[in-house]
């Protein structure tokens, strides 16, 4: 009932890198899939870390299902991201040099982890995602992002992630002092487009 910690790596060895990028895959995807996206990002000198969800899914139901219905997988998934961050910190990577990239279910998990653990990070790009829960529990979200850059890209409509939740997430992150950019693409579909990768590079991986 919990994820087995399985972190795939690529890029520069963690003990030689100054920056680390944590990449979180979507439902049915894999750590290797999301790592392959790094070739389109300005992260050549980064250590790349991608935890693998047990059975390919971070939690069983929609991210806007009641939270208790996604437990205990959801809590274990958030903990997995925390352990991945700890792995980077243990190798001497500073928090402000830790970056995040998540897609779909991985974007939701990335944003949920960050909102629960706000501090000055390097930056985050979340494509098609929002904070998790049938209703947003604002009391879960604490800390100060200290102007961490955050990019939210999404399609409207999207069958999995309502655009209203993306906007609500952007507002929460702004309240927590993140420097948020959101971009909504009309009828683009549930995927990552070239402009989103370019925006991630110009806003986050600079």
Automatic annotation (TrEMBL):
Organism: Chryseobacterium takakiae
Keywords: Hydrolase
UniProt KW Transferase keyword: no
Domain Phospholipase/carboxylesterase/thioesterase, residue spans: 15-202
GO molecular function: hydrolase activity
Name of the protein in question: Phospholipase/carboxylesterase
Alphabetized PANTHER family for the sequence: LYSOPHOSPHOLIPASE-LIKE PROTEIN 1, LYSOPHOSPHOLIPASE-RELATED
Family of this protein: Belongs to the AB hydrolase superfamily. AB hydrolase 2 family.
């Amino acid at each position: 009932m919990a994820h087995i910690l399985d972190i795939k790596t690529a890029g520069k060895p963690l003990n030689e890198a100054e920056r680390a990028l944590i990449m979180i895959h979507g439902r049915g995807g894999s750590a290797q899939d999301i790592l392959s996206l790094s070739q389109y990002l300005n992260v050549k000198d980064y250590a790349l870390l991608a935890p693998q969800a047990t059975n390919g899914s971070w939690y069983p139901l929609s991210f806007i299902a009641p939270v208790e219905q996604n437990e205990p997988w959801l809590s274990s998934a958030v903990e997995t991201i925390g352990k991945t961050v700890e792995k980077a910190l243990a190798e001497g990577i500073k928090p402000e040099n830790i970056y995040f990239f998540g897609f779909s279910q991985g974007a939701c998990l990335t944003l949920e982890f960050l909102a629960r653990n706000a501090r000055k990070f390097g930056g985050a790009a979340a494509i098609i995602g929002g904070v998790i829960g049938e209703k947003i529990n604002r009391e879960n979200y604490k800390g100060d992002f200290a102007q961490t850059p955050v990019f939210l890209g999404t399609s409207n409509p999207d069958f999995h992630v309502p655009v209203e939740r993306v906007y609500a997430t952007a507002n929460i992150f702004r309240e927590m002092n993140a420097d948020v950019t959101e971009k909504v693409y009309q009828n683009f579909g549930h995927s990552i487009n070239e402009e989103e990768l370019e925006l991630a590079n110009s806003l986050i991986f600079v």
